[in-house]
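Sample entry (70 residues):
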Amino acid sequence: MYDFAPDAHVAEAMVGLPIAEVERTLILATLRQTNGNRTRAAQILGLSIRTVRNKLKDYADKGFNIPHAA
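Predicted structure, serialized as tokens:
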């Protein structure tokens, strides 16, 4: 599917952060990269669309800005 090596500097910057924060950052960044396409973001992340929708609802409820489809 996707064959890439994570940037060591990026990984080092995340050391010490809670997994939930890293996950949220990755999901929202992927959603921005897909111009708000939730289905595509879910595919890239290897998550079900239902999981992505549930997480985005939770993030929105907590006040995070959720990218919308362009």
